[in-house]
Structure formats: C-alpha cells, structure tokens
Design brief:
With 274 residues, this protein is mainly α. The chain contains twelve helices and two strands. It has a two-stranded antiparallel sheet.
C-alpha cells in the first residue's frame, strides 16, 4: 500500500525544486554541482578501497598492462559534453543529462588535478593534497554561483541597511546622553561622550550638579545628596582659591578682610585670576 504521507513529501520536494531551482534558471548549475560532488566522492572512496585491497571492490582499469587513470575518462566526458553543450540547442531531457555528465567528468578529472599539474602520479603523496584543495575551490565558487550573486547582493544590502539603522539610532542616543550631561552641568563627560558614548551614559545615570537645570526637578533628598557630592567641586577645573570664592558666593558669605580692609592674599589672587 502506498503511503500518502510519502507521496505528499515527494510532491512537496518537487514543488520546492521547481520554485527554487527550475524557475530561477539554476537547474543546470544545480545538476552540475550535485554530479560533481557525487563523482568526486565516489572516485575518492573507490581509490581508498582499491588501495586497501577490498576483495569485492573492482580494481584498477588496465589496457594492455597500462593503468588507465580515471582522469582519462573524466577528460573524455568533459570534451564530449562540452561539445554537445556548445553546438546543440538542448531540450529536456538532454538539458538535464548534459550538465550531469559534465559534472561527473569534471569530478573524475579534478580528483587527479595534482597528477596533471605535476605530470607524475602523486595521488598518495604530499603533492596529491592539491587535488583536494582544487576541488574545495571549485565547490566554493560553484556554490556561490548556484546561490546567485543577486542573493548575496540582497543579503549585503540588508546587512548594510541594518548597520545604517544601528549607527543612526546610536548617534541619536549619544546626542541625547550628551544633552543630559550638559543639562546636569557635567561638561567634561559630555565632551568625552562625543568620542566614547559609555562615558556620557554613566554621566546621564548619575546625579547632576545641584545648580543644574535638571536639579530643579530633584526631590529634597535627591538635591541634598547632590549638594553632598558636588559642593566644593566645579564643573570646570579651577584653582582652589577660585573654587573657594565661588562656593562662598553661593552660600551668600562675603570673604573676611584683614585690618587694612583688604581681602586675604588668596582671595586677592583669586580676584586677579578672575
């Protein structure tokens, strides 16, 4: 009895193949890709089994005592299918058979890439590794073309848009944090925040100076803590005498004078500094 679920699964796969491969014009590339991988995997496995002398596995092909390397069969398939593909206007099923046969021939040929590169049999030597390297390159390039350059462009465009959104919103957030620091009279943190946003974030989260615009909205307890933290400190680094005089003016106190009616030397220096 035929399983209806299995029939539906096959139909779904066929429908997906039509939409993703056939309708996008990638059928020939897909068939070549699969045939190339299958051919390479098969012949590489076969070579290992022959070397291991597996009794039930067919051995090397020899004609008149001469070993025929499998790249010979691969070259013949590539030449035949290449000529057919170039000179003939193919329709189904030949439009599918030719890419598959070409992929098989390419797999057989590239498995011995190191041989025709060095003009000697180096299949099991260190130089034989070049065959695998060449196959990896072909698989990567073919896979890229199979997915389609347009798909990669769409992905890159999506990533670019995402990056622009992230950078844009990050800039807006950084400017908001800098504005909060300025409103809290934390000018140093605001300046550094132009170049390193986490600093302005720290400044925005912590208490502002008691004389700042934001401090006007503080509760009594919060304003008291702001005074405890910032009294005696200036938003801009100043000499100690200048800081002391500013603090006294904020408290409404006048600097004491000496017997000659002059301000102390420190205050006089501060006046000259002003």
């Amino acid at each position: 009895m035929i399983d209806p679920g299995g029939v539906l699964s096959i139909a779904s796969i066929g429908s997906l193949y039509d939409r993703a491969v056939v309708e996008t014009g990638r059928e020939a590339s897909f068939l070549f890709f699969v045939a190339f991988l299958g051919s390479f995997g098969f012949i590489r496995t076969s070579a290992h089994m022959i070397r291991a002398e597996v009794s039930w596995w067919p051995g090397n092909v020899e004609v008149g005592g001469t070993h025929i390397h499998h790249l010979v069969w691969g070259i013949c398939l590539v030449l035949i299918t290449g000529w057919i593909g170039v000179t003939q206007d193919l329709s189904s099923p030949w439009a599918q058979i030719v890419p598959i046969t070409f992929g098989i021939g390419a797999g057989l040929t590239m498995d011995e890439f190191a041989l025709w590169l060095n003009l000697r049999d180096v299949y099991w030597e260190q130089e034989g590794r070049r065959s695998i390297d060449a196959v990896i390159v072909i698989v990567a390039v073919t896979g890229l073309l199979l997915v389609g350059l347009r798909s990669w462009i769409d992905v890159a465009t999506g990533v670019e848009d995402y990056v622009f959104h992230v950078v844009g919103w990050s800039t807006v957030l950084a400017m908001v944090l800098i504005g909060i620091n300025v409103a809290k009279e934390k000018f140093g943190m605001a300046l550094i925040g132009f170049f390193f946003s986490p600093v302005s974030l720290i400044g925005a989260l912590r208490l502002g100076r008691p004389t700042s615009l934001i401090a006007r909205r503080y509760s009594k307890d919060k304003r008291r803590r702001a005074h405890e933290r910032f009294d005696g400190r200036s938003a801009v680094p100043m000499p100690p005498p200048v800081q002391r005089r500013i603090q006294e003016r904020r408290r409404g106190a006048r600097p004491a004078k000496n017997a000659q009616g002059e301000a102390p030397a420190e205050d006089a220096d501060a006046s000259r500094s002003d």
